[in-house]
């Protein structure tokens, strides 16, 4: 995993998506597909802030873990 210090400047303002949105006033995770099979995640409330950059295997493992309940402790 790597990171971009300023996601708007380093990764551009276009192509960011909110895969889901809750009732938290719009503070959501945004995702963007990058070149070379990478995915960036950032906080929508701070689009100029840092973004975490994952490879496709890393993001696939992350999503599989969430689906498997491995992050349930965060909301318990």
From TrEMBL:
The DUF397 domain covers 15-67
| Region described as Disordered | 1-28
Q: Biased-composition ranges for Basic and acidic residues? A: 1-17
This one is known as DUF397 domain-containing protein
Please give one Pfam family short name. Answer: DUF397
């Amino acid at each position: 995993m790597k990171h971009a210090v300023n996601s708007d400047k380093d990764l551009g303002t276009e192509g960011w998506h909110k895969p889901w949105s809750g009732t938290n006033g719009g503070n959501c995770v945004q995702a963007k597909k990058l070149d070379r099979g990478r995915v960036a995640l950032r906080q929508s409330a701070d689009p100029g802030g840092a973004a975490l950059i994952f490879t496709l295997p890393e993001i696939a493992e992350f999503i599989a873990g969430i689906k498997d309940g491995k992050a349930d402790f965060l909301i318990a």
